[in-house]
Amino acid sequence: MTVTADLDKVLDKAYENLTLTEVLDAPVAALSGLTDAHGEALSALRIKTVGDLGRNKYIRWAVAMADLQDRTN
């Protein structure tokens, strides 16, 4: 199954034409609104890439709980 997504609004310009694999391997500052300083702060949680951020168990738990609450409201 082919899946397409327009990531231009969530990525900095320099990362817009990369493959998904390349984006996931990019530093968190590749995400629009995040800076190198954010990346440095996240490195304390061993989050260095966009993929690390998306796979972090604490972030996934928080997203899951927020989604549950949103569905009940």
Written description of the protein model:
- It contains four helices and no strands.
- The protein is an all-alpha fold and 73 residues long.
- The protein is globular, with a radius of gyration of 14 Å.
- The termini are far apart.
- The model has no long low-confidence stretch (mean pLDDT 93).
Average pLDDT rating = 93
Radius of gyration: 14 Å
Please write the string of helix (H) and strand (E) elements: HHHH
Shape: globular
Strand content: under 5%
The main pleated sheet reads as: none
Secondary structure: number of strands: 0
- Rounded to the nearest angstrom, the distance between the terminal CA atoms is 33 Å
Number of DSSP helical runs? 4
Helix share, percent: 40-55%
Structural class: mainly alpha
Sequence-ordered SSE layout with sheet pairings:
Blueprint: H1 20-25, H2 36-42, H3 50-55, H4 57-72
Gist of the model:
The protein contains four helices and no strands. It has helices spanning 20-25, 36-42, 50-55, 57-72. The mean pLDDT is 93.
List keywords for this structure.
73 residues; mainly alpha; 4 helices
